[in-house]
Amino acid sequence: MAVDIKKRIPVNGVMQKIHIVSNDESLPVLLFLHGGPGVVNRHSLFSHDRDLLDTFTMVTWDQRGTGGSYAGVSKDTLTIDQLVEDAKEVVDYLCKEFKKEKIFVIGGSWGSLLGIRLAYAYPEQIAAFVGFGQFVNGEKNEQISYQYTYDAAKAVGDEEAVKKLETVGPPVKGVYKGGFDGMMVQRRLMMKYGGYSKSQEKRSYMDSFVKPMILSGEYSLSDLKGVLLGYKKVLKVMWPEIGEEDLTKYRKFNVPIFVFDGKLDMNTPAELVEEWFEGIEAPHKELIWFENSGHNPMGDEPERFKKLLREKLSAISA
To answer: With contact defined as beta carbons under 8 Å apart, do 52 and 30 qualify?
Structure first.
């Protein structure tokens, strides 16, 4: 039976919004963990990736404090540990709702951090985890990303960009001077110089993220209000903790781990991924490189990404 439902469910004391779309409820469930933290992406998935419905029941979730899950969230609950507990509850809900023993989970950027922590702590109901834009170490991440952007600006004589970067950095334990605002200076310039995606060089943050979200029709007015008020709040509160996070502490996993990573990624730098991945243990693990992709290979090389996603996950029972 076909399903297309947006609803809010209780998750650890907060009503949180999910969107479930399925052409066949017997298909495996695939839960998407968005990035940020606080940056919802269901508009992108249901605009560009609905063809995955031939293989999966797709579920998106607005995480605590943003989008349709903005209301009723206190700052002291915006922690990595709490988001892991929330993710566990969403997985449990979906297993019960669709009568599954296990589901698949995929996460990009911050979602890859959350997904790895979830897979490590609560493997019982996870058939496999797929990460992309894979986070490894917050402090090293920002050092490399900042230096890349600074060197790129310097190389072309962009004195205005160099001055801005010198004002906000280098980051200390992953945090820029000015906090959120300083980080956004670095991120916008990193995008300008192709560190996010070669296809998005010279595209503004507004054109890449904000306009597609508003124009998609995916979000209600209250959802959009939650995005507007929530993403900055969540990032500001959580970023210092993320800056100190180091996933090399988590070595032994009891679920299959796949990483689909873009070689050109300087947002969560690809150079950190291989050494970390070689050091983890899992029943099955694969690191697959996307040579022409940046932070989001699902957007840069969508056909190859989705073909491999179907192939790899279809070989695992869920």
So the answer is: yes
Q: For 32-78, how does the pLDDT look when each residue is reduced to its tens digit (9 = 90+)?
A: 999 999 999 999 999 999 999 999 999 999 999 999 999 999 999 99
* pLDDT tens-digit series, residues 220-270: 999 999 999 999 999 999 999 999 999 999 999 999 999 999 999 999 999
Place of tokens 């502490």: 249
Domain extent for 272: 3-137+245-314
CA angle 274, 292, 35 (to 5 degrees): 65
Q: Looking at the structure, do residues 130 and 250 belong to the same domain, yes or no?
A: yes
Same domain? For 34 and 101 the reply is yes
pLDDT, tens digit, 9 for 90 and up, residues 149-197? 999 999 999 999 999 999 998 999 999 999 999 999 999 999 999 898 8
H or E element that contains 123? none
Strands of 103-108's sheet, edge to edge? Answer: 3-11, 14-22, 57-61, 29-33, 103-108, 126-132, 257-262, 285-290
> With contact defined as beta carbons under 8 Å apart, do 39 and 213 qualify?
no
For residue 219, being part of any structural domain is answered with no
Cα 306 to Cα 3, 48, 100, 187, 290: the distances in Å are 21, 11, 23, 27, 12
Q: Are residues 15 and 130 in the same domain?
A: yes
Rounded Cα distance, 236 and 268, in Å: 18
Please tell me whether residues 258 and 152 are part of one structural domain. Answer: no
Identify the CATH number of the domain in which residue 59 sits. Answer: 3.40.50.1820
Q: Are residues 268 and 131 in the same domain?
A: yes
pTM higher than the cut 0.90: yes
* pLDDT tens figures, 262-276: 999 999 999 999 999
Helix 221-243 vs helix 138-155: angle between axes, to the nearest 10 degrees? 100
Asked if 158 and 307 sit in the same domain, the reply is no
Out of 178, 203, 228, a domain closes at 203
